[in-house]
Amino acid sequence: MNTPFFALPPSTIFEDGCSRRDSETRLLDRVDQQGQRLAVIHQASRGISVPRSYQRHPRFEAASRQLAATGLPVDVRLSGGGVVPQAAGVINLHLAYPVQANYPLQQVEAHYLGLCELIAQALVACGIHATPQPVQGSFCDGRFNLAVAGKKIAGTAQYWRRNRTAATPTFSLLSHAVILVNANSAELTDMANRFEAALHSPVRYLPEKTTSVIELLGSPASDFEPTLLQALRNPPL
Fold first, then answer.
1. Is 140 a catalytic residue?
2. Global pTM?
3. What are the C-alpha distances in Å from 35 to residues 94, 134, 174, 235?
């Protein structure tokens, strides 16, 4: 049996006025110092989350100002991937925990699959069967999406940071997911496309490539977060 994750209240990590990147760094700092397996479940305010690589785009600052002026602020995160829209009904799961490793690349896939399995367990409790797979045309596509009938319902990402205070080779891993629960997937796709358009990028995402729990069930899922918390008590990773 794997060690359960200790769930932190979102307000202890994601404070108002603090960037996502700084909040995630604070979470990893706690892992470095305490060696705990931590989890945070939260719904972010409406906006766009992007990896640090987007900051190198020549129009990034202008695009960020343009979207912020329309009520869609852009925030930078630690992990890679692509554009991720945030809105009510989008559940963010952040897992942060120590991993003993000399070469973390050898363990990346196993930790992705463990995260996918954990989320899939919570979705099964809602009557939804999802599997890891890429979904071409969805926003922030990747090998370790979770999809239902070819439509993305969750995306995952990682960020590994060496713990330089540990006595043995150890990394603190941020393994996180965005799960579309009580959200409008077409609206989210439009938000992501607005950011790409502001960058003058030719990339556009397809609304028919994503779905959500509420769209699959036809009614809101009121107990998804408690179900996810239960899965964290007996995690597959």
1. yes
2. 0.96
3. 16, 33, 13, 17
